[in-house]
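To the wet lab folks,

You asked to see what we're planning to order before we commit. Fair enough. Below is the target structure as C-alpha cells, and below that is the sequence we designed to fit it. If anything looks off to you, flag it before the synthesis order goes out.
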C-alpha cells in the first residue's frame, strides 16, 4: 500500500526544511513561521484575487449595505409603505447575498487542503515547540490570556511562560498582518 501521507510530509519537508535551516534559532523557529505565514497568505490572497470577481462582489456588498440602510431608516421613521416595498425586495436581496457568499467560498475550496497539510506539517515539525514572548501591550491586545484559557480547556495544562504564545497564535498574528499587506498591495478594496 502506498504511504500517501509519508509522501506528502516528505514533499513538505523538502519545501520547508530549508526555510527551517536558515532560521537563526532553529529550536525556536519564529522566522520560519513568519515565512510560512507569508507563503500561505500569498496563496490565499492570489486565489481570492483570481477566483472571485472582486468588482461584482464589492458592488453586491454596496447594494446590500444600501438596502439595509434604507430598511433601517424606514423602520425608524415608521414608514409602513416603504417597509412593505423593501420587504418585497428582501427575498431577491437574500438570493444575491447567498450568491455572494458562495462566490467567496471558491478560493477556500482550492486552498483548504494545502493549508491543512501545512498545518499538520508544522504541528509535526520542530515548529510545535515554538514559544514567542510578547511585549505586555501586545499580549493583552491580542487577547492572549483568552487563548490560553481556551487552550487549557481543550489541551489541558496551563500557560507556564508569562506573556508567551505558541506557534499557532504566532502563525495567526503573522497571517493576519501579511494578508492585510498583500490585499492592499494587490488592490483589494476591503480588508481581511
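Sequence we intend to order:
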Amino acid at each position: 500500500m502506498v504511504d500517501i501521507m509519508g509522501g506528502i510530509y516528505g514533499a513538505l519537508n523538502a519545501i520547508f526544511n530549508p526555510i527551517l535551516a536558515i532560521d537563526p534559532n532553529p529550536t525556536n523557529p519564529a522566522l520560519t513561521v513568519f515565512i510560512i505565514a507569508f507563503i500561505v497568505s500569498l496563496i490565499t490572497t492570489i486565489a481570492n484575487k483570481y477566483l472571485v470577481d472582486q468588482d461584482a462582489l464589492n458592488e453586491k456588498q454596496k447594494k446590500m449595505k444600501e438596502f439595509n440602510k434604507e430598511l433601517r431608516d424606514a423602520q425608524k421613521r415608521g414608514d409602513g409603505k416603504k417597509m412593505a416595498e423593501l420587504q418585497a425586495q428582501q427575498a431577491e436581496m437574500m438570493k444575491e447575498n447567498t450568491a455572494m457568499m458562495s462566490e467567496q467560498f471558491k478560493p477556500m475550496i482550492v486552498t483548504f487542503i494545502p493549508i491543512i497539510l501545512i498545518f499538520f506539517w508544522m504541528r509535526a515539525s520542530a515548529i510545535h515547540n515554538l514559544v514567542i514572548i510578547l511585549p505586555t501591550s501586545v499580549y493583552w491586545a491580542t487577547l492572549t490570556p483568552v487563548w490560553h484559557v481556551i487552550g487549557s480547556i481543550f489541551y489541558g495544562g496551563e500557560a507556564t511562560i508569562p506573556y508567551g504564545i505558541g506557534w499557532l497564535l504566532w502563525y495567526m498574528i503573522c497571517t493576519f498582518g501579511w494578508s492585510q499587506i498583500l490585499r492592499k498591495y494587490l488592490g483589494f478594496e476591503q480588508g481581511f
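Structural context that might help your review: The first strand starts at residue 132 and ends at 133. The beta strands are 132-133, 164-165.

Thanks,
Computational group
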